[in-house]
Specification:
Layout: H1 15-26, H2 32-44, H3 50-57, H4 61-74, H5 93-105, H6 116-123, H7 127-136, H8 155-167, E1 173-189, E2 208-221, E3 227-232, H9 237-250, E4 256-261, H10 270-277, E5 282-286, H11 297-309, H12 317-333, H13 344-359
Parallel strand pairs: 1-4, 4-5
Antiparallel strand pairs: 1-2, 2-3
Helix pairs in contact: 1-2, 2-3, 2-4, 3-4, 6-7, 8-13
């Protein structure tokens, strides 16, 4: 039988307070922090214990105590403004809420997103005050990130399969995370760069001349971080087959080979399938659609981009290919595996929380 936590101070909500808290919880696009605090107070009003409220709302006991204490001291304002030393806050909770709601649920005229200046004009508050409100609620209208949720019917099964390989690889086997970084461009800047000096960053021209492209094929050993690589001008199934042959030659014959790769048609071409049938020690594991984040070799490609390609200045494809080979060689001299820590269940729960956050609470 579960033990009850310390009794919460008795809370009686006025009709207006209860209506406001329920409105904050129901609003689909309300800031999540404010919605969470409102749910805590509504649960506290039922007379439940600390532990019961924490369990119902899925937060820690200190979180329940903190916001309930602040609500008892300052009522609705306590859920919005952190108490600060000095002059008392002059901005009402309603004005703060309006800034949050306008930021989340509207756009300014002739613009795609709010700036501090535009919101200040809209709300009648200063730009610095708008900035503080946004910071308090984790709002960053100037930022955006691209994403696409997987529509793979085998999403869950594939996540369990691949994460299982990362956390508990089979005995007498090696696991490779494989992909191709295609369309790597040899870009020649129109003018030489100005070197960095004290107080002045390195400066490069924004314009460049293209001198062709190449592709980096990479197989990251998820256990020790070493990389098997090849460079090909064309990104075709026959090149992928040749890369599998290279992996085959580099892995001792007594070991099975597990390949984690995406669903690109090159990886499933009949030519590749025929080769795989003749090499039964190779086992293919395909990531869910639109889920490159689960393929660890993408982390390696991010390192290549940051270290070598982001500021590249190459006058020929041969030059950039030579630098790519040198980069991989240097990496293998001191390889660093990317340690996967989340279980498949933790990964799926993280995705579920994200979906709940962007879709809002169900009604």
């Amino acid at each position: 039988m579960a033990t009850r936590g310390p009794a919460l101070p008795e809370l009686k909500l006025s009709e207006a307070e209860r209506d406001q808290l329920e409105r904050w919880v129901r609003r689909r696009k309300s800031a999540q922090d404010l919605a969470l605090r409102s749910r805590i107070e509504l649960e506290c009003a039922t007379g439940a214990s600390n532990s019961e409220v924490a369990k119902r709302v899925s937060v820690s006991l200190p979180t329940v105590r903190k916001w309930h204490t602040r609500f008892l001291e300052r009522r609705m304002v306590g859920l919005v403004d952190e108490p600060r030393p000095g002059r008392p806050a002059l901005i009402s909770v309603d004005r703060v809420e309006q800034v949050v709601v306008d930021t989340l649920e509207s756009t300014p005229k002739n613009a795609t997103h709010w700036s501090r200046a535009k919101m200040a004009e809209r709300s009648g508050l200063s730009k610095s005050t708008v900035g503080r409100i946004w910071k308090a609620f984790g709002l960053k209208p100037h930022l955006e990130e691209e994403f696409k949720l997987s529509n793979d019917p085998l999403f869950t099964e594939r996540v369990y399969d691949i994460v299982g390989l990362y956390l508990n690889p089979p005995e007498s086997a090696v696991v490779f995370s494989v992909d191709e970084k295609s369309q790597v461009q040899a870009l020649a800047r129109s003018q030489p760069a100005f070197p960095m000096m004290p107080g002045v960053p390195e400066r490069r021209t924004h314009d460049y001349v293209r001198h062709g492209t190449t592709s980096l094929f990479a197989a990251l050993n998820v256990a020790d971080g070493t990389v098997i690589s090849s460079i090909h001008r064309k990104h075709r199934s026959i090149k992928f087959k040749k890369f599998l042959q290279k992996i085959d030659k580099n892995v001792p014959e007594h070991l099975d080979v597990h390949i984690v790769c995406n669903n690109y048609s090159t990886h499933k071409h009949p030519l590749v399938k025929v080769w795989l049938e003749k090499h039964p020690r190779f086992h293919m594991h395909f990531t869910p659609t639109y889920s490159s984040w689960i393929n660890q070799v993408e982390r390696l490609f991010a390192e290549v981009t940051r270290d070598l390609l982001q500021r590249s200045d190459h006058r020929s494809v041969q030059a950039i290919e030579e630098d790519l080979r040198d980069w991989v060689k240097a990496w293998n001299e001191n390889p660093k595996p990317f340690i996967w820590t989340k279980t498949a269940k933790d990964t799926l729960e993280s995705i579920a929380r994200y979906l709940k956050r962007i879709n809002g609470p169900e009604h």
